[in-house]
Design a protein that fits this description.
This protein is mainly beta. Helices cover about 0% and strands about 50% of the residues. A hairpin with a 5-residue loop joins strand 9 and strand 10. The radius of gyration is 13 Å and the shape is globular.
């Protein structure tokens, strides 16, 4: 079992930055692939980025160059640094964890609103 708690969301102006954090507990974090997904109203949940246990990263095309995912296996945390935010980045952002057996866990999400 994995518990995931997100933090760092909020309201930001277009062009601004936010850093989301996800704290994980209850499992062997360092073996899990960790990721961030987002869901806007009326839309399907979509991948933002994920990072494997050995640090390999994958980003959705629209986030490349603007977002950076990182993990700290000592602290059991995964962060998402978001720069050059756009109104279309407005969504609820969810932390995701997948263990080596394929079990998937989700946090409750944190709201990001990009608006002037």
């Amino acid at each position: 079992q994995v518990q995931l708690v997100e933090s760092g969301g909020g309201l930001v102006q277009p062009g601004g930055s936010l850093k989301l954090s996800c704290a994980a507990s209850g499992s062997i974090f360092r073996f899990n692939r960790m990721g961030w997904y987002r869901q806007a109203p009326g839309k399907q949940r979509e991948l933002v980025a994920h990072i494997t246990s050995n640090g390999r990263t994958t980003y959705a095309d629209s986030m490349k160059g603007r977002f950076t995912i990182s993990r700290d296996n000592g602290k059991n945390t995964v962060d998402l640094q978001m720069n050059s935010l756009k109104p279309e980045d407005t969504a609820r952002y969810y932390c995701n964890s997948v263990n080596p057996y394929g079990d998937t866990y989700w946090g409750q999400g944190t709201q990001v609103t990009v608006s002037s």
